[in-house]
Design goal:
single chain, 564 residues, alpha/beta, DNA polymerase, domain 1, Beta Polymerase, domain 2, Beta Polymerase, domain 3, 4 domains, seven-stranded parallel sheet, five-stranded mixed sheet, 24 helices, 17 strands, globular, DNA-binding
Length: 564
Amino acid sequence: MAERFELLADLLEIEGAESYRVLAYRRAAARIRETPTAVAEMALEGKARALPGVGRTIEEKIVQIVQDGEIKALRDRRDRIPSDLIAFLRVPGLGPKTVRRIWQELGITTVEGLRQAAAEQRLRVLTGLGPKTEENVLKALSVEQAPPAPQRTLLGKALPAVRQLVAELQDDAHVDRISEAGSVRRRKETTRDVDLIATARDPAGLTARFVAHEAVAEVAAHGPTKATVVWQNGLRFDLRVVPPESYGNLLQHFTGSKDHNLALREAAVREGLSVSEYGIVVVETNEVITAESEEDVYRRLGYELIPPELRENLGELEAARRGELPRLVDVDALRGDLHMHSTWSTDADHSLEEMARAAQARGYDYVAVTDHSHYLREDRFRAQAEEIAALNERLTPFRILQGIEVNIGLDGSVDAPDEDLAACDWVIASLHRAFDSSPNERILAAMEHPHVHCIGHPTARKIGRREGADLDLEPLIAKALETRTFLEINSQPDRLDLRDVHARAAREAGLQLAISSDSHRVSELANVEYGVAQARRAWLGAGDVLNTRPWREVEALLGSGEKR
DNA sequence: GCCGTTTTCGGCCCGACTGTTTTCAGTCG
Protein backbone atom coordinates (compact mmCIF):
# COMPACT_ATOMS: atom_id res chain seq x y z
CA MET A 1 0.00 0.00 0.00
CA ALA A 2 2.79 2.39 0.97
CA GLU A 3 4.63 1.60 -2.27
CA ARG A 4 1.55 2.42 -4.32
CA PHE A 5 1.16 5.80 -2.65
CA GLU A 6 4.84 6.52 -3.21
CA LEU A 7 4.49 5.63 -6.87
CA LEU A 8 1.45 7.89 -7.13
CA ALA A 9 3.49 10.69 -5.55
CA ASP A 10 6.29 10.18 -8.12
CA LEU A 11 3.85 10.27 -11.02
CA LEU A 12 2.08 13.34 -9.68
CA GLU A 13 5.40 15.06 -9.28
CA ILE A 14 6.37 14.34 -12.89
CA GLU A 15 2.97 15.68 -13.96
CA GLY A 16 3.85 18.90 -12.16
CA ALA A 17 1.30 18.57 -9.35
CA GLU A 18 1.45 21.03 -6.49
CA SER A 19 4.30 20.01 -4.20
CA TYR A 20 2.25 19.86 -1.01
CA ARG A 21 -0.15 17.43 -2.61
CA VAL A 22 2.84 15.23 -3.46
CA LEU A 23 4.18 15.62 0.07
CA ALA A 24 0.81 14.57 1.47
CA TYR A 25 0.97 11.24 -0.40
CA ARG A 26 4.54 10.63 0.72
CA ARG A 27 3.62 11.32 4.32
CA ALA A 28 0.66 8.98 4.10
CA ALA A 29 2.92 6.28 2.64
CA ALA A 30 5.37 6.66 5.52
CA ARG A 31 2.55 6.57 8.05
CA ILE A 32 1.08 3.41 6.57
CA ARG A 33 4.49 1.76 6.59
CA GLU A 34 5.06 2.57 10.28
CA THR A 35 1.62 1.54 11.48
CA PRO A 36 1.81 -1.97 12.94
CA THR A 37 -1.93 -2.62 12.78
CA ALA A 38 -3.92 -3.44 9.65
CA VAL A 39 -4.53 -0.12 7.90
CA ALA A 40 -6.81 -1.75 5.32
CA GLU A 41 -9.24 -2.84 8.02
CA MET A 42 -9.12 0.60 9.60
CA ALA A 43 -9.97 2.19 6.24
CA LEU A 44 -12.93 -0.15 5.68
CA GLU A 45 -14.30 0.90 9.05
CA GLY A 46 -13.68 4.58 8.26
CA LYS A 47 -11.06 4.80 11.01
CA ALA A 48 -7.89 5.21 8.96
CA ARG A 49 -8.25 8.97 8.97
CA ALA A 50 -7.43 8.87 12.67
CA LEU A 51 -3.83 8.34 11.49
CA PRO A 52 -1.95 11.65 11.17
CA GLY A 53 -1.51 12.47 7.49
CA VAL A 54 -4.44 10.36 6.34
CA GLY A 55 -7.57 12.29 5.47
CA ARG A 56 -10.76 11.62 3.58
CA THR A 57 -9.22 11.34 0.11
CA ILE A 58 -6.39 9.02 1.05
CA GLU A 59 -8.69 6.85 3.13
CA GLU A 60 -10.93 6.46 0.06
CA LYS A 61 -7.91 5.45 -1.99
CA ILE A 62 -6.96 2.80 0.59
CA VAL A 63 -10.46 1.41 0.28
CA GLN A 64 -10.03 1.35 -3.51
CA ILE A 65 -6.89 -0.76 -3.10
CA VAL A 66 -8.73 -3.23 -0.89
CA GLN A 67 -11.89 -3.43 -2.98
CA ASP A 68 -10.64 -2.94 -6.56
CA GLY A 69 -7.01 -3.97 -6.19
CA GLU A 70 -5.77 -0.59 -7.37
CA ILE A 71 -6.14 3.16 -6.93
CA LYS A 72 -8.05 4.61 -9.88
CA ALA A 73 -5.88 7.73 -9.95
CA LEU A 74 -2.80 5.51 -10.16
CA ARG A 75 -4.21 3.33 -12.95
CA ASP A 76 -5.10 6.43 -15.00
CA ARG A 77 -1.64 7.90 -14.64
CA ARG A 78 0.13 4.66 -15.40
CA ASP A 79 -1.66 4.69 -18.75
CA ARG A 80 -0.60 8.25 -19.47
CA ILE A 81 2.96 8.35 -18.17
CA PRO A 82 5.74 6.06 -19.49
CA SER A 83 6.83 3.72 -16.71
CA ASP A 84 10.56 4.26 -17.32
CA LEU A 85 10.24 7.87 -16.18
CA ILE A 86 10.26 6.59 -12.59
CA ALA A 87 13.73 5.17 -13.25
CA PHE A 88 14.86 8.59 -14.56
CA LEU A 89 14.14 10.00 -11.10
CA ARG A 90 16.75 7.70 -9.59
CA VAL A 91 19.54 9.32 -11.59
CA PRO A 92 21.33 11.67 -9.15
CA GLY A 93 20.64 15.24 -10.16
CA LEU A 94 17.51 14.48 -12.15
CA GLY A 95 14.40 15.55 -10.31
CA PRO A 96 10.76 15.63 -11.35
CA LYS A 97 10.95 18.97 -13.17
CA THR A 98 13.89 17.89 -15.30
CA VAL A 99 12.39 14.46 -15.99
CA ARG A 100 9.18 16.12 -17.14
CA ARG A 101 11.06 18.34 -19.58
CA ILE A 102 13.12 15.47 -20.95
CA TRP A 103 9.88 13.60 -21.57
CA GLN A 104 7.73 16.42 -22.94
CA GLU A 105 10.29 18.51 -24.80
CA LEU A 106 12.62 15.79 -26.09
CA GLY A 107 10.08 12.99 -26.34
CA ILE A 108 12.33 10.53 -24.47
CA THR A 109 10.35 7.74 -22.76
CA THR A 110 12.79 4.88 -22.12
CA VAL A 111 15.95 4.43 -20.04
CA GLU A 112 17.83 3.36 -23.16
CA GLY A 113 16.58 6.46 -24.97
CA LEU A 114 17.83 8.62 -22.13
CA ARG A 115 21.23 6.94 -22.19
CA GLN A 116 21.55 7.44 -25.94
CA ALA A 117 20.49 11.08 -25.74
CA ALA A 118 23.13 11.70 -23.10
CA ALA A 119 25.78 9.87 -25.16
CA GLU A 120 24.88 11.91 -28.25
CA GLN A 121 24.94 15.19 -26.30
CA ARG A 122 21.29 15.87 -27.03
CA LEU A 123 20.28 16.71 -23.44
CA ARG A 124 22.18 20.01 -23.48
CA VAL A 125 19.71 21.59 -25.90
CA LEU A 126 17.44 22.09 -22.88
CA THR A 127 18.28 25.28 -20.95
CA GLY A 128 19.67 24.43 -17.55
CA LEU A 129 21.17 21.13 -18.73
CA GLY A 130 24.77 20.88 -19.86
CA PRO A 131 27.69 18.49 -20.34
CA LYS A 132 27.87 17.71 -16.62
CA THR A 133 24.26 16.52 -16.56
CA GLU A 134 24.91 14.23 -19.52
CA GLU A 135 27.98 12.87 -17.79
CA ASN A 136 25.95 12.15 -14.62
CA VAL A 137 23.26 10.36 -16.63
CA LEU A 138 25.79 8.16 -18.42
CA LYS A 139 27.55 7.33 -15.18
CA ALA A 140 24.34 6.46 -13.33
CA LEU A 141 22.92 4.34 -16.13
CA SER A 142 26.09 2.40 -16.82
CA VAL A 143 26.59 1.71 -13.11
CA GLU A 144 22.96 0.74 -12.73
CA GLN A 145 23.24 -1.94 -15.37
CA ALA A 146 26.28 -3.63 -13.84
CA PRO A 147 25.87 -4.15 -10.08
CA PRO A 148 22.45 -4.03 -8.40
CA ALA A 149 21.18 -0.87 -6.71
CA PRO A 150 23.29 0.18 -3.71
CA GLN A 151 22.24 -1.70 -0.62
CA ARG A 152 21.46 -0.05 2.63
CA THR A 153 24.14 -0.63 5.25
CA LEU A 154 23.38 -2.56 8.44
CA LEU A 155 23.66 -0.66 11.72
CA GLY A 156 26.08 -3.37 12.82
CA LYS A 157 28.49 -2.18 10.13
CA ALA A 158 27.75 1.56 10.07
CA LEU A 159 27.95 2.18 13.81
CA PRO A 160 31.47 0.79 14.36
CA ALA A 161 32.64 2.62 11.21
CA VAL A 162 31.30 6.00 12.31
CA ARG A 163 32.68 5.55 15.82
CA GLN A 164 36.12 4.89 14.42
CA LEU A 165 35.98 7.91 12.12
CA VAL A 166 34.76 10.16 14.95
CA ALA A 167 37.64 8.97 17.10
CA GLU A 168 40.10 9.71 14.29
CA LEU A 169 38.78 13.20 13.53
CA GLN A 170 38.50 14.05 17.22
CA ASP A 171 42.26 14.42 17.28
CA ASP A 172 42.36 16.70 14.25
CA ALA A 173 43.47 20.28 14.96
CA HIS A 174 40.55 21.73 12.95
CA VAL A 175 37.93 20.02 15.10
CA ASP A 176 36.23 21.61 18.05
CA ARG A 177 33.48 19.05 18.71
CA ILE A 178 32.34 16.15 16.54
CA SER A 179 29.56 13.59 16.74
CA GLU A 180 27.73 10.89 14.86
CA ALA A 181 24.32 12.06 13.67
CA GLY A 182 21.54 11.04 11.28
CA SER A 183 19.92 7.64 11.14
CA VAL A 184 22.94 5.93 12.74
CA ARG A 185 22.51 8.08 15.83
CA ARG A 186 18.81 7.19 15.82
CA ARG A 187 20.00 3.56 15.60
CA LYS A 188 17.87 2.69 12.61
CA GLU A 189 18.46 -0.92 11.56
CA THR A 190 19.91 0.17 8.22
CA THR A 191 21.25 3.44 6.83
CA ARG A 192 21.70 4.86 3.38
CA ASP A 193 24.52 7.15 4.41
CA VAL A 194 26.40 7.84 7.59
CA ASP A 195 26.13 11.36 8.98
CA LEU A 196 28.71 13.27 11.00
CA ILE A 197 28.50 16.78 12.38
CA ALA A 198 31.20 19.00 13.80
CA THR A 199 31.98 22.48 14.97
CA ALA A 200 35.27 24.05 13.94
CA ARG A 201 37.05 27.37 13.94
CA ASP A 202 38.04 26.72 10.32
CA PRO A 203 35.14 24.78 8.76
CA ALA A 204 36.61 24.80 5.24
CA GLY A 205 39.85 23.34 6.59
CA LEU A 206 37.91 20.52 8.20
CA THR A 207 35.86 19.62 5.11
CA ALA A 208 39.08 19.65 3.09
CA ARG A 209 40.66 17.24 5.59
CA PHE A 210 37.50 15.08 5.46
CA VAL A 211 37.51 14.66 1.67
CA ALA A 212 41.26 13.97 1.71
CA HIS A 213 40.89 10.92 4.02
CA GLU A 214 42.88 7.97 2.69
CA ALA A 215 39.82 5.69 2.49
CA VAL A 216 37.87 8.07 0.24
CA ALA A 217 37.15 6.68 -3.21
CA GLU A 218 34.89 9.44 -4.50
CA VAL A 219 33.97 12.99 -3.49
CA ALA A 220 30.29 13.45 -4.28
CA ALA A 221 30.00 17.01 -2.93
CA HIS A 222 32.44 19.42 -1.31
CA GLY A 223 31.66 22.91 -0.04
CA PRO A 224 33.08 25.00 2.80
CA THR A 225 30.64 23.68 5.42
CA LYS A 226 29.41 20.41 3.96
CA ALA A 227 30.87 17.44 2.12
CA THR A 228 29.80 13.98 0.97
CA VAL A 229 32.26 11.19 0.22
CA VAL A 230 32.08 7.53 -0.72
CA TRP A 231 34.66 5.26 0.85
CA GLN A 232 36.35 2.35 -0.86
CA ASN A 233 34.26 0.00 1.28
CA GLY A 234 31.09 1.51 -0.20
CA LEU A 235 30.01 3.53 2.85
CA ARG A 236 28.76 7.06 2.17
CA PHE A 237 29.71 9.69 4.74
CA ASP A 238 28.16 13.15 5.07
CA LEU A 239 29.89 15.81 7.15
CA ARG A 240 28.29 19.10 8.12
CA VAL A 241 30.14 21.88 10.00
CA VAL A 242 28.76 24.94 11.87
CA PRO A 243 30.14 27.49 14.36
CA PRO A 244 30.64 26.25 17.96
CA GLU A 245 27.75 28.23 19.49
CA SER A 246 25.26 26.32 17.29
CA TYR A 247 26.41 22.80 18.22
CA GLY A 248 23.11 21.84 19.84
CA ASN A 249 21.08 23.21 16.94
CA LEU A 250 23.22 21.38 14.40
CA LEU A 251 23.17 18.06 16.22
CA GLN A 252 19.40 18.29 16.59
CA HIS A 253 18.93 19.22 12.95
CA PHE A 254 21.21 16.61 11.49
CA THR A 255 20.06 13.77 13.72
CA GLY A 256 16.60 14.06 12.19
CA SER A 257 14.54 12.33 11.23
CA LYS A 258 13.23 14.47 8.45
CA ASP A 259 9.67 13.82 9.57
CA HIS A 260 10.51 14.64 13.16
CA ASN A 261 12.16 17.93 12.19
CA LEU A 262 9.35 18.83 9.83
CA ALA A 263 6.76 18.38 12.56
CA LEU A 264 8.95 20.17 15.10
CA ARG A 265 9.38 23.16 12.78
CA GLU A 266 5.75 23.34 11.78
CA ALA A 267 4.79 23.50 15.44
CA ALA A 268 7.46 26.16 16.02
CA VAL A 269 6.18 28.29 13.13
CA ARG A 270 2.76 28.38 14.80
CA GLU A 271 4.46 29.92 17.82
CA GLY A 272 6.33 32.51 15.78
CA LEU A 273 9.65 30.66 15.83
CA SER A 274 11.79 29.59 12.90
CA VAL A 275 14.08 26.62 13.52
CA SER A 276 17.22 25.83 11.54
CA GLU A 277 20.60 24.20 12.13
CA TYR A 278 22.00 27.59 13.13
CA GLY A 279 19.50 28.50 15.79
CA ILE A 280 15.96 29.39 16.68
CA VAL A 281 14.81 32.74 15.28
CA VAL A 282 12.05 34.68 17.04
CA VAL A 283 10.37 35.93 13.87
CA GLU A 284 8.90 39.09 15.35
CA THR A 285 12.15 40.45 16.79
CA ASN A 286 14.67 38.63 14.60
CA GLU A 287 16.40 37.52 17.80
CA VAL A 288 18.53 34.40 17.21
CA ILE A 289 18.69 31.86 20.02
CA THR A 290 21.59 29.44 19.68
CA ALA A 291 22.00 26.35 21.82
CA GLU A 292 25.12 24.45 22.77
CA SER A 293 23.15 21.33 23.66
CA GLU A 294 20.17 19.53 22.19
CA GLU A 295 18.47 19.68 25.56
CA ASP A 296 18.45 23.50 25.28
CA VAL A 297 16.92 23.32 21.79
CA TYR A 298 14.08 21.10 22.94
CA ARG A 299 13.52 23.00 26.16
CA ARG A 300 13.28 26.34 24.33
CA LEU A 301 10.65 24.83 22.03
CA GLY A 302 8.64 23.46 24.95
CA TYR A 303 9.72 19.82 24.98
CA GLU A 304 11.72 17.61 27.28
CA LEU A 305 14.85 16.13 25.65
CA ILE A 306 13.77 13.45 23.19
CA PRO A 307 16.16 10.47 22.86
CA PRO A 308 17.39 10.14 19.25
CA GLU A 309 15.86 6.67 18.88
CA LEU A 310 12.36 8.12 19.28
CA ARG A 311 12.67 10.91 16.71
CA GLU A 312 10.43 9.58 13.95
CA ASN A 313 7.32 11.72 14.40
CA LEU A 314 5.47 8.74 15.80
CA GLY A 315 4.04 10.46 18.87
CA GLU A 316 7.27 11.49 20.61
CA LEU A 317 6.73 15.24 20.17
CA GLU A 318 3.31 15.13 21.78
CA ALA A 319 4.62 12.95 24.64
CA ALA A 320 7.63 15.22 25.17
CA ARG A 321 5.36 18.27 25.24
CA ARG A 322 3.43 16.66 28.10
CA GLY A 323 6.61 15.44 29.80
CA GLU A 324 5.50 11.84 29.39
CA LEU A 325 8.36 10.23 27.47
CA PRO A 326 9.25 6.72 28.64
CA ARG A 327 12.53 6.06 30.42
CA LEU A 328 14.17 3.84 27.86
CA VAL A 329 16.03 0.63 28.64
CA ASP A 330 19.82 0.66 28.28
CA VAL A 331 22.44 -2.05 27.90
CA ASP A 332 23.55 -1.83 31.53
CA ALA A 333 20.08 -2.89 32.68
CA LEU A 334 20.42 -6.40 31.24
CA ARG A 335 20.97 -9.08 33.90
CA GLY A 336 21.31 -12.05 31.59
CA ASP A 337 21.07 -13.36 28.04
CA LEU A 338 18.37 -15.86 27.12
CA HIS A 339 19.56 -17.05 23.71
CA MET A 340 23.07 -18.23 22.89
CA HIS A 341 24.88 -21.21 21.48
CA SER A 342 27.99 -23.21 22.34
CA THR A 343 30.11 -25.77 20.53
CA TRP A 344 27.36 -28.28 21.26
CA SER A 345 25.96 -26.65 18.10
CA THR A 346 28.45 -27.22 15.29
CA ASP A 347 27.81 -23.74 13.86
CA ALA A 348 29.21 -22.12 17.02
CA ASP A 349 32.83 -21.31 17.92
CA HIS A 350 33.16 -21.34 21.72
CA SER A 351 32.58 -23.87 24.47
CA LEU A 352 29.90 -23.67 27.11
CA GLU A 353 32.46 -22.56 29.67
CA GLU A 354 33.95 -19.88 27.39
CA MET A 355 30.50 -18.46 26.63
CA ALA A 356 29.48 -18.54 30.30
CA ARG A 357 32.66 -16.86 31.52
CA ALA A 358 32.37 -14.17 28.85
CA ALA A 359 28.78 -13.52 29.88
CA GLN A 360 29.87 -13.33 33.51
CA ALA A 361 32.57 -10.84 32.52
CA ARG A 362 29.86 -8.65 30.98
CA GLY A 363 28.28 -8.47 34.43
CA TYR A 364 25.42 -10.89 33.82
CA ASP A 365 23.95 -13.06 36.57
CA TYR A 366 22.75 -15.79 34.26
CA VAL A 367 22.63 -17.08 30.70
CA ALA A 368 20.44 -19.63 28.99
CA VAL A 369 22.44 -21.89 26.70
CA THR A 370 20.02 -22.68 23.90
CA ASP A 371 21.73 -24.98 21.47
CA HIS A 372 19.78 -26.23 18.47
CA SER A 373 17.58 -29.24 19.17
CA HIS A 374 19.00 -31.29 16.30
CA TYR A 375 22.45 -31.23 17.94
CA LEU A 376 21.04 -32.48 21.25
CA ARG A 377 19.43 -35.74 20.20
CA GLU A 378 19.25 -38.69 22.58
CA ASP A 379 22.08 -38.95 25.12
CA ARG A 380 23.71 -35.70 24.01
CA PHE A 381 20.94 -33.77 25.76
CA ARG A 382 21.72 -35.50 29.08
CA ALA A 383 25.46 -35.11 28.55
CA GLN A 384 25.08 -31.38 28.06
CA ALA A 385 22.92 -31.17 31.18
CA GLU A 386 25.72 -32.81 33.16
CA GLU A 387 28.28 -30.36 31.83
CA ILE A 388 26.00 -27.45 32.77
CA ALA A 389 25.51 -28.82 36.29
CA ALA A 390 29.27 -29.25 36.79
CA LEU A 391 29.99 -25.74 35.51
CA ASN A 392 27.31 -24.24 37.73
CA GLU A 393 29.03 -25.66 40.80
CA ARG A 394 32.23 -23.84 39.84
CA LEU A 395 30.66 -20.57 38.63
CA THR A 396 28.10 -20.02 41.39
CA PRO A 397 26.42 -17.64 42.08
CA PHE A 398 26.50 -17.17 38.29
CA ARG A 399 23.99 -19.52 36.76
CA ILE A 400 23.82 -21.33 33.42
CA LEU A 401 20.24 -22.19 32.64
CA GLN A 402 19.60 -25.25 30.62
CA GLY A 403 17.87 -24.18 27.45
CA ILE A 404 17.18 -25.38 23.97
CA GLU A 405 16.15 -23.85 20.64
CA VAL A 406 13.64 -26.08 18.89
CA ASN A 407 12.34 -25.84 15.33
CA ILE A 408 8.69 -25.17 14.66
CA GLY A 409 7.57 -27.78 12.14
CA LEU A 410 5.10 -27.41 9.29
CA ASP A 411 2.30 -28.58 11.56
CA GLY A 412 3.31 -26.33 14.46
CA SER A 413 4.91 -29.15 16.45
CA VAL A 414 8.38 -28.81 17.95
CA ASP A 415 11.24 -31.23 17.33
CA ALA A 416 12.38 -32.40 20.77
CA PRO A 417 10.95 -34.97 23.20
CA ASP A 418 8.58 -33.61 25.86
CA GLU A 419 10.69 -35.13 28.65
CA ASP A 420 13.76 -33.15 27.48
CA LEU A 421 11.71 -29.96 27.19
CA ALA A 422 10.29 -30.52 30.66
CA ALA A 423 13.83 -30.74 32.02
CA CYS A 424 14.77 -27.36 30.54
CA ASP A 425 14.64 -24.04 32.36
CA TRP A 426 14.02 -22.12 29.14
CA VAL A 427 12.71 -23.27 25.76
CA ILE A 428 12.84 -21.16 22.60
CA ALA A 429 10.83 -22.20 19.55
CA SER A 430 11.79 -20.69 16.20
CA LEU A 431 10.84 -20.80 12.54
CA HIS A 432 13.84 -21.90 10.52
CA ARG A 433 12.26 -22.93 7.24
CA ALA A 434 9.13 -22.72 5.08
CA PHE A 435 8.38 -19.20 6.22
CA ASP A 436 5.53 -18.93 3.73
CA SER A 437 3.62 -21.95 5.02
CA SER A 438 1.04 -20.72 7.53
CA PRO A 439 3.63 -19.07 9.79
CA ASN A 440 1.00 -17.49 12.01
CA GLU A 441 -0.80 -20.75 12.72
CA ARG A 442 2.48 -22.56 13.38
CA ILE A 443 3.64 -19.95 15.89
CA LEU A 444 0.23 -19.91 17.58
CA ALA A 445 0.45 -23.70 17.93
CA ALA A 446 3.98 -23.50 19.34
CA MET A 447 2.78 -20.99 21.94
CA GLU A 448 0.14 -23.47 23.04
CA HIS A 449 2.86 -26.03 23.74
CA PRO A 450 3.13 -26.50 27.51
CA HIS A 451 6.93 -26.27 27.58
CA VAL A 452 7.65 -23.44 25.12
CA HIS A 453 8.61 -20.17 26.83
CA CYS A 454 9.68 -17.90 24.00
CA ILE A 455 9.42 -17.47 20.23
CA GLY A 456 12.87 -16.75 18.75
CA HIS A 457 13.35 -14.22 15.91
CA PRO A 458 9.60 -14.35 15.20
CA THR A 459 9.52 -13.29 11.53
CA ALA A 460 12.85 -15.00 10.68
CA ARG A 461 13.72 -12.16 8.32
CA LYS A 462 17.31 -11.51 7.19
CA ILE A 463 17.62 -7.82 6.44
CA GLY A 464 18.49 -7.19 2.81
CA ARG A 465 18.34 -10.88 1.95
CA ARG A 466 14.97 -12.31 2.93
CA GLU A 467 11.66 -10.72 3.82
CA GLY A 468 10.74 -13.22 6.51
CA ALA A 469 7.31 -14.48 7.45
CA ASP A 470 4.42 -12.10 6.88
CA LEU A 471 3.04 -12.32 10.41
CA ASP A 472 -0.19 -10.89 11.72
CA LEU A 473 1.15 -9.60 15.03
CA GLU A 474 -2.06 -8.80 16.87
CA PRO A 475 -3.30 -12.37 17.42
CA LEU A 476 0.26 -13.50 18.21
CA ILE A 477 0.63 -10.87 20.92
CA ALA A 478 -2.77 -11.79 22.35
CA LYS A 479 -1.84 -15.49 22.39
CA ALA A 480 1.53 -14.72 23.95
CA LEU A 481 -0.18 -12.93 26.82
CA GLU A 482 -2.72 -15.69 27.22
CA THR A 483 -0.20 -18.55 27.24
CA ARG A 484 2.58 -16.68 29.09
CA THR A 485 4.91 -17.04 26.15
CA PHE A 486 7.40 -14.30 25.36
CA LEU A 487 8.64 -12.83 22.12
CA GLU A 488 12.27 -12.05 21.39
CA ILE A 489 14.13 -9.10 20.00
CA ASN A 490 16.99 -10.96 18.36
CA SER A 491 20.11 -8.77 18.36
CA GLN A 492 21.94 -10.17 15.35
CA PRO A 493 22.52 -7.12 13.12
CA ASP A 494 20.87 -8.73 10.10
CA ARG A 495 17.87 -9.98 12.10
CA LEU A 496 16.74 -7.35 14.64
CA ASP A 497 13.57 -9.33 14.89
CA LEU A 498 11.02 -8.27 16.15
CA ARG A 499 11.51 -4.97 14.40
CA ASP A 500 10.81 -1.62 16.05
CA VAL A 501 7.16 -1.00 15.22
CA HIS A 502 6.19 -4.59 16.05
CA ALA A 503 8.02 -4.51 19.37
CA ARG A 504 6.26 -1.25 20.13
CA ALA A 505 2.88 -2.83 19.45
CA ALA A 506 3.81 -5.70 21.80
CA ARG A 507 4.77 -3.28 24.54
CA GLU A 508 1.56 -1.32 24.14
CA ALA A 509 -0.36 -4.57 24.60
CA GLY A 510 1.51 -5.17 27.86
CA LEU A 511 3.81 -7.96 26.66
CA GLN A 512 7.40 -8.12 27.89
CA LEU A 513 10.14 -8.96 25.39
CA ALA A 514 13.48 -10.73 25.77
CA ILE A 515 16.48 -8.95 24.24
CA SER A 516 18.80 -11.78 23.22
CA SER A 517 22.15 -11.97 21.46
CA ASP A 518 21.68 -15.34 19.74
CA SER A 519 25.51 -15.47 19.95
CA HIS A 520 27.43 -18.23 18.26
CA ARG A 521 30.75 -16.86 19.56
CA VAL A 522 32.01 -14.76 22.46
CA SER A 523 32.35 -11.57 20.42
CA GLU A 524 28.66 -11.64 19.54
CA LEU A 525 27.49 -11.25 23.13
CA ALA A 526 28.02 -7.52 22.63
CA ASN A 527 25.45 -7.51 19.83
CA VAL A 528 22.79 -6.91 22.47
CA GLU A 529 23.66 -3.25 21.94
CA TYR A 530 21.76 -3.47 18.64
CA GLY A 531 18.84 -5.30 20.21
CA VAL A 532 18.65 -2.71 22.97
CA ALA A 533 18.73 0.03 20.31
CA GLN A 534 15.80 -1.63 18.57
CA ALA A 535 13.98 -1.87 21.91
CA ARG A 536 14.57 1.83 22.54
CA ARG A 537 13.15 2.64 19.11
CA ALA A 538 10.13 0.62 20.24
CA TRP A 539 9.74 2.82 23.37
CA LEU A 540 10.65 -0.03 25.75
CA GLY A 541 11.68 0.75 29.30
CA ALA A 542 13.66 -1.63 31.50
CA GLY A 543 10.39 -2.96 32.92
CA ASP A 544 9.28 -4.04 29.45
CA VAL A 545 12.36 -6.22 29.00
CA LEU A 546 12.26 -9.68 30.52
CA ASN A 547 16.00 -10.13 30.99
CA THR A 548 16.46 -6.96 33.02
CA ARG A 549 15.03 -9.09 35.83
CA PRO A 550 16.86 -11.58 38.03
CA TRP A 551 16.22 -15.15 36.91
CA ARG A 552 14.06 -15.81 39.97
CA GLU A 553 11.62 -13.14 38.76
CA VAL A 554 11.68 -14.34 35.17
CA GLU A 555 10.89 -17.83 36.38
CA ALA A 556 7.91 -16.55 38.34
CA LEU A 557 6.56 -14.87 35.19
CA LEU A 558 6.59 -18.16 33.31
CA GLY A 559 3.49 -19.12 35.25
CA SER A 560 2.81 -21.93 37.61
CA GLY A 561 2.46 -25.50 36.47
CA GLU A 562 2.85 -26.55 32.89
CA LYS A 563 5.09 -23.73 31.67
CA ARG A 564 7.66 -24.45 34.39
C1' DG B 1 -3.95 16.56 0.21
C1' DC B 2 -3.96 17.66 5.16
C1' DC B 3 -5.07 20.44 9.00
C1' DG B 4 -6.69 24.04 12.85
C1' DT B 5 -4.98 27.42 21.29
C1' DT B 6 -4.76 32.93 15.18
C1' DT B 7 -7.85 29.69 10.40
C1' DT B 8 -13.05 24.98 7.36
C1' DC B 9 -9.37 28.65 3.87
C1' DG B 10 -4.87 29.39 3.27
C1' DG B 11 -1.20 28.16 4.85
C1' DC B 12 2.30 24.17 4.63
C1' DC B 13 10.68 23.79 7.39
C1' DC B 14 14.96 25.35 6.09
C1' DG B 15 19.39 25.76 4.08
C1' DA B 16 23.61 23.93 1.23
C1' DC B 17 25.43 22.51 -3.09
C1' DT B 18 25.42 21.81 -8.21
C1' DG B 19 25.22 23.16 -12.72
C1' DT B 20 23.96 26.35 -15.09
C1' DT B 21 23.35 30.94 -15.54
C1' DT B 22 24.99 35.90 -15.10
C1' DT B 23 21.16 35.93 -10.46
C1' DC B 24 18.99 31.33 -9.97
C1' DA B 25 16.20 26.99 -10.26
C1' DG B 26 16.42 22.45 -9.16
C1' DT B 27 17.86 18.95 -6.27
C1' DC B 28 18.97 16.99 -1.99
C1' DG B 29 18.81 15.95 2.87
